[in-house]
Design brief:
The structure is a homodimer.
Chain A lengths: L6 H13 L7 H7 L5 H28 L3 H7 L1 H7 L6 H12 L4 H5 L6 H16 L2 H7 L6 H15 L9 H24 L3 H28 L3
């Protein structure tokens, strides 16, 4: 049985394995940032990504249920309220519907998932299934794509303001709200993963969970490109 | 296929099937209320029931994960924070540890579950398993033992103050806090169950989930009596 990696080496490996597979490098995102997408592309992305967004409170509730530690649950529970909000008008899901309206989608289009591509559904449901089956450490490790989110979000905000002026800038509130939150959420998650994954085997399982998560995000964009070629 | 019960008939059936199996009638509770328990009995009950209490946030997180409705999740999430608190010093689990100290148990005795009887563990774990497998309506129906909790809690508070004066009255704070909450939680849960269970089959499954929950609570006391005869 091999020795576990040091904390620093384990963190470096998570960053490396996750970072090189992160969907910022996907052709769809490259086209988005270069101003190469049509309104229909943006609509397809917002509508399909909304299904992903609706899975987040569900997977975070499953993560809460895996923990025996009230202090961990207290630290994690804001992720649910961040998305669900205090009313139907605030929170991440409401901000996403606002983004939908800004690209020309009705709330009902998002709520009914009428534009949801079957492969996107499978990938998002695979994320929930991954969390259901995973240990707490692996489940939290899968959320570490947040490590790479602030840069992507910042790039996205700038690109949308420059290249897609028909989208009301105020509708980018979700992205803006996520920049600082993704950074603090990722730091919190990284600490938990490093603390929980103390064997070489569990460290490998955490890396594998993060890799699977990057595949889910990547496949979501593959499906959109297949339906709406660049 | 039979017709579903009317709302009133379904509620009456839940009350009847749950009420006549509720553990207020268990010999251990009867002895508790009549002043017939020793300090060791109270310690065994508090220590074993603590494991049950630690399962509550876990089963409530699983219930959150079953819902596709942010409004439901917003209404349900306080059940987790009620038990976990804002710090390690408040919340239902902290109040239960305070009760433990008042009957002569150390926090470490509760945290390590050193007095946990194997059958109590099985019953409490069966509750979590029931929730994992259940539909949202059945999972919420299993919580409807709360319908009968306010009377039992009120009786318990009076009995402890009268018969067990060596227990500091301030340590009964958990029971006191639960009287109004159990009533409002039960009303909220009942509304959800009635709204979700619209077929005769689902109504029966909800009744069965509530019956199973009463069996879990009853068995917990059976195990304590077997280990500490009345």
């Amino acid at each position: 049985m091999s020795e576990p990696l040091s904390k620093e080496a384990f963190v470096a490996r998570l960053r490396e394995e996750g970072g090189r597979r992160y969907h910022d490098a996907h052709p769809f995102h490259r086209a988005m940032h270069a101003g190469g997408l049509s309104r229909v592309h943006l609509q397809a992305w917002v509508a399909n990504r909304y299904y992903y967004q609706t899975r987040i409170p569900i997977k975070d509730a499953l993560i809460l249920a895996k923990s025996e530690n009230p202090a961990f649950r207290r630290a994690w529970i804001h992720r649910l309220t961040d998305h669900d909000g205090k009313t139907d008008e605030d929170g991440g899901l409401a901000l996403w519907r606002r983004l939908g309206r800004a690209v020309g989608l009705r709330d009902a289009d998002l709520a009914s998932h009428r534009y949801l591509l079957r492969g996107v559904r499978f990938a998002c449901d695979a994320y929930v299934s991954l969390i259901e089956r995973a240990s707490l450490a692996e489940a939290v490790a899968s959320s570490l794509t947040e490590l790479f989110a602030p840069d992507l979000l910042t790039q996205r905000i700038q690109a949308w303001q420059r290249h897609y002026p028909f989208v009301d800038g105020a509708a980018l509130a979700y992205f803006k709200s996520r920049v600082p939150r993704a950074a603090s959420d990722a730091a919190e998650a990284l600490e938990l993963v490093v603390g929980e994954a103390r064997s070489a085997e569990m460290q490998e399982r955490c890396v594998a969970a993060l890799v699977r998560k990057t595949e889910i995000l990547w496949h979501l964009l593959d499906c959109i490109v297949a339906a709406h070629p660049l």
